[in-house]
Amino acid sequence: MKQYHVSIYRHDPSVEGSGRYVDYTLSTDARLKVLDALDAVSKEYDTDIAYRASCLMGRCGSCAVMLNGRALLACQAQVEPGNSRLEPLRGYLVVRDLLVDRTPHERVIDAARIHLDDSGFARPTGFTYGKDLYALTLCTDCLVCQASCPARNEIPAQFAGPAVMTQLARYARDPRDQGARPTTALVEGLHSCTSCMTCSEVCPRGIDVFGQAIVALRKGAVGSRLPGPKVQDDMTEMFRETGLAFPKSGPLLVEEMAEAGPKQGDVGVFLGCMFQTRHKDDGRALVKVLRDAGHTPVVPEGLVCCGGPLLWTGHEEEARQAAATNVKILNDAGVGTVVTACAGCGLAWRKEYPRLLEGTGLSPQFTVLDVSKMLDARESPQASAGSERLAYFLPCHIRSQGAADDARRAAEWSITRSGRTYVEVDFPECCGGMAASADPQLAARLAAKVIAAAEENSIDAIVTSCPFCVENLARGSRRARSKVRVTHLLGV
What we know:
The protein is α/β, with parallel strands linked by helices. The chain folds into four domains: 2-100, Roll (Ubiquitin-like (UB roll)), CATH 3.10.20; 103-223, Alpha-helical ferredoxin (Fumarate Reductase Iron-sulfur Protein, Chain B, domain 2, Orthogonal Bundle); 231-375, Rossmann fold (3-Layer(aba) Sandwich); 382-491, Rossmann fold (3-Layer(aba) Sandwich). The protein is 40% helix and 14% strand. The chain is built from 20 helices and 17 strands. It is globular.
């Protein structure tokens, strides 16, 4: 029989110091969902564990808990044989055991007047839901996204969280609603979202919370000419003037490579903004990796920002222009593969471009890959493990592409081949790098947690695959006066 060893958080507020984990063992051949395990423990151990459950079908959202640190619905998620840990939702006051107090969340909903405001509006005949509005109505307010959100958990008084943004976006998209939803979203901390997209990944109803709610509200704010973060507005203006989101510091890397590099090749290189301006050495390393793998990389002139940072801050029209420009240039280059080393660029190409290119008649005639797919093809001698300890920090935008395993393998391969010791560290999921342009204080707090985790594990250097992570974590290390270095994977 299978053995399930379940450690459950128990707390009785009437008993001082009662918060503790209690271990229970279940023996069964059946596969257990979390709710099955809770029911079985309650029955077999005759214990009164407090937890919520209602529909048992993932429709009511009442049974959300944390399983091994991940928020989910107890009626949907499976418990694997072996050791498991069940806790109440992160970021909420515990009423008892696995029950949390939802009152603060409900007060925010009430205070923000999140209900249909159709006063003075003539109801349209034949009204139908659009796909985005329909998707948003599926939200059950289960709070899984709230408990998973790094920004909401760090600054709950400043950022109301993705569930609140989902409800605001629901009414913003309803043609009957007369409420100023983007304005309310700004008050509730819209720009403090780190754009990590965790909310979309964990939603039990499959809602793209980040895209259909947060980005939509940011787009609404831009369309209403509401004031946004100055750094983000400057980035957009920079794109309009130069095609890049960051200012030049001397010649662009693409200009340097255009003079010395081949005009034709089998692999296109997409440098984006960061590798052309602030991280040129990593851009050169990307080209070298491809050459070492036996390819002839070409860096076409005229490529612009990937458009991801523009889209994710609400500037959709500029993002569409960027997508169309980049696809046309790389299609004309005749390459079968395009490689990038920026997590955000890769995510924009793979996730956002299909929608941004709708109606243009354009589509990429090539496959877009992250450089991690190419690293194990390099010819370099195997070195013996050294004393320097390096750990890989997984960028949110690599995870959102579904490329986490490839990235981790590439990091381990690169680190061990370089003669250093690869160490697995359970880092916080988000470093706050994409939040630095809107909420630098939040970005600093999230980066500090990653640096602290590195120091606790005696890590000499953090390796990552995103230039935004590199910059924010490096700032965090300097602020903490830490000796932990931060480098892009290409710099190993």
